[in-house]
Amino acid sequence: MSDERAKLVRRFTAQRGCDTMLSGIRPASVREQLAVIGKTAAEDAVPDFYGEGGPVEELEGRVAGLLGTEAAVFFPTGTMAQQIALRYGAELTGRDGVGLHPLSHPVLHERDAHVLLAGLRTVRTTDAPRNPIAAEVAALDEPIGTLMLELPLRDAGFVLPEWDELTAVVTAARERGARVHLDGARLWESTVHLAHPLAAVAALADSTYVSFYKSLNGHSGAALAGDAELVRYARAWRHRHGGNLFQQWPAALAALAGLTHELPRLPRYVAHAKVVAAALATLPGARVYPERPHTHQFRLWLPHPADALNEAALALAEEEQAWFVGGWRDTEVPGVALAEVTVAGPALELDADQVVGLADRFLRRLPR
Length: 368
Ligand SMILES: Cc1ncc(COP(=O)(O)O)c(C=O)c1O
Fold this sequence. Notes:
The protein has 15 helices and 13 strands. By secondary structure, it is of the alpha/beta class. Pyridoxal-5'-phosphate (PLP) binds next to α4. GO terms for molecular function: L-allo-threonine aldolase activity.
């Protein structure tokens, strides 16, 4: 087993043994995941055939219904779905520039796929750690076929615009003749801060991508939603990209389970994240951002090296069956590390005092 794999297995095992959890959820075993799929499948469900019919079609219909779009198409990954949405924008407008944030997923995490595979160019929208505002889009000095907005912008701290800012930046894009695509990997929980339902948000855009395995706890997979023409095009290019799997019903069933059970719970997580963030901000030397989180996720900094924090989290889990926060990484400030906190089901059981109590037990494990 590689070192990386061994670390993952150690963390998985430690988290499964915990009866208290602040960040994230207790990870499910393969058998537990199979049980969820089994319970979700209708008695007479028939598998899909290359994505046609079965739970995949049911899922596509459910997503189109939630987002209020004409159609939706299932994708094995969001990476693939978004390249196709952006390529479509370039074909329709004749412009290969895509308005992207330097912290967006395609720019940071996809090895230049949109450039190398779809022949697109990045036009940086803003260097500010938030989605671009209308004035920035109006001032771009290059044409763009599509403006992509990431709701929330994960690598800036899961930050969302205000509703008026969002509608204004969409208008600014349209005035430049650009289409609008939403990276909605975490759109499900964004409706609370935006104070508008999913369909109202998606109605602002020409295409919206949503993910099934982040806040919804599915296996994998994504959907691209928009008008029927976009979805027809996306199905053709999904095939070209090698994304037409023979059967995708396991991922679709896990996604359907997430929509039924987890989606309605997200607003409670978002509300509780404000309580958790305020409690964590009182720790010695801690910073949280946003101070009032926009979703159920936010960033936490502590004045310790990442290795020590990761080791303390594992030791606390293994010895006291309590999970604090993991995934620490060092920042450019020496001795200060950063982690993303996810307030989900298990954290609802912890009030502010219990959060601080758990944090104290965690901090006591750090070398002095
Ligand atoms: C904001 C955002 N966009 C796109 C993706 C891509 O999703 P996938 O892993 O399904 O390719 C991710 C995945 O982490 C993401 O966080």
